[in-house]
Amino acid sequence: MESDKQENNNNNNNAVGSDTANLPEECVAIMVSLTSPRDACRLSAVSSTFRSAAESDVVWARFLPSDYISLLSRAVHPVRYASKRELFFLLSGRHILIDRGKMSFGLEKSSGARCYMLSARTLSIVWGDTPQYWRWISLPDSRFSEVAELINVHWLEIRGKIQCKLLSDKTKYAAYLVYKINGHGSRSFSFQPQETAVIVGDHISNHTVSLANKDETCRNTIMFRNFLRWRGVLTLPYIEDEDNDVFDDADDADDDETVDIAGSSHLRIDGWMEVELGEFYNNEGENSEVEMSFMEVKGRHWKRGLLVQGIEIRPKF
User: Fold this and answer.
1) Nearest to 145 by CA among 310, 315, 311
2) Does the chain have fewer CB atoms within 10 Å around its N or its C terminus?
3) Residue 206 has pLDDT above 70, yes or no
4) Cβ(280)–Cβ(173) under 8 Å?
């Protein structure tokens, strides 16, 4: 009986496979185009018919943005491709520079959703055009011709905007500051956490982040508190060393002042760092825009050594 059941299952599977194989390739292509880029790649392994259909322009034209021709016309360098499939994987493998090199564009590989990166030149940076505080330099590992280097400021404020209509509809996005910190610059970001925000319509996504190395943040916080105690401003037990068990009483006494660092930095495959500014769901319509910000204005101490490449907006899963 068990062998009969197995034989029936095999016959059913063969019948399904036979029915699928007999479908015209055009019909299979339409079916595959209603899935996703990831599913299309998986379906290409089903049969030779599916493989041929999954590689057709009918499928990959649907995964490309409807205005891809207009986007390609804005590219700094000509984009050459032999098929829609090749174009999709070109755009999902790397960003292309558009709008005179002030912005980059690409696609998220599994979904085909749009991704953008705003160069530092397109951002609003307080004192950004004052050489005393910021300067503009070129780096070989940046996709843009210029990045902003922080020389010395106590009021750090960076803002960016992008129109919702440029992004994929009904998609969850996140915005990321793409940066590096050179030399001993990390130390100047360790005394006071930074604040970020992403605003779309009535939606506000806030984070408290720190660009500084975690160990350095701890060390400098300890030194700062010890300095305040020495000056008689802070009445907490003296903390001699971060490896000392004397911490316990101080930590307990300062629980109310603890700041929850929600955002953490990550190393990107291009060698830069990134930190999330906030997230949003793009369903706001053509007339709305996304406002993004990164700030540290409360500490009033001098900050230096930050290199800003831009702000990247990409789908978040």
Assistant:
1) 310
2) N
3) yes
4) yes
